[in-house]
Amino acid sequence: MRPRHHALRSLALLTWTLSTASFAAPLIVELSAEASRPAVNDLVRATVAAEAAGTTPGELSRQINQQIAEALKTAKAYPAVKTQSGGTTTYPVYAKSGKIESWRMRSELSLESGDAASVSELLGKLQASLGVSNLQLQPSAETRKKVESEAMIDAIAAFKGRAKVIADALGMSYRIKQLSVSSSGRVVQPMFRGAAKTMAMEAAPMPVEAGESQVSATVSGQIEVE
Questions:
Q1: Among 139, 106, 134, 143, CA closest to 206
Q2: What is the mean pLDDT of the chain?
Q3: Distances (CA, A) of 82 to 55, 56, 199, 202, 203
Q4: How far is residue 148's CA from residue 52's CA, in Å, rounded to a whole number?
Q5: Model pLDDT, residue 190
Q6: What is the pTM for the complete model shown?
Q7: Cβ of 226: how many Cβ atoms within 10 Å?
């Protein structure tokens, strides 16, 4: 009876093992995919500055304020350009003896517009008395949002394509277990950056080439293959 009892126990154990194997955990695979799309740089941001040196802060303040006031007056003729006063700094210039021998002052004005032609023309006029310290082109919020959505759709499609390749190679099917989506844009380098200049310059439009920025979307996650 004992051998028969032992055989029955072995058969039951084998049946349980096979049954458990049929419910084995699916294979988990981690993968990611990325897609990029070009976005038109339809927003122009520029910074112009008035900078001067003098013997007293009061003298500098009158001079700088007059330059900024004239710049704002000129900018009013361009309603498509948003103008905003920036920071103003005043600092002493010391002689070798350690005493203050003069003062320097700098005041900035920020420009922003989706009309590159207007910004170009305005900058050309402002350069007669102010210096352009920063000129930057980038996609507007609306443009970036639209292109991000398109890039996300492309990235999700690429993710599903990779998942199918893996599942097909294993002769199995798959389902998405976890998914995360993120987007990013290449940092737009300023087209021009330099110190402010106060020397008189010919009032000619500043060349502004919009170009494009790359907006990317990345999809990463896990799939179950079984």
A1: 134
A2: 84
A3: 34, 32, 25, 23, 20
A4: 44
A5: 45
A6: 0.70
A7: 12
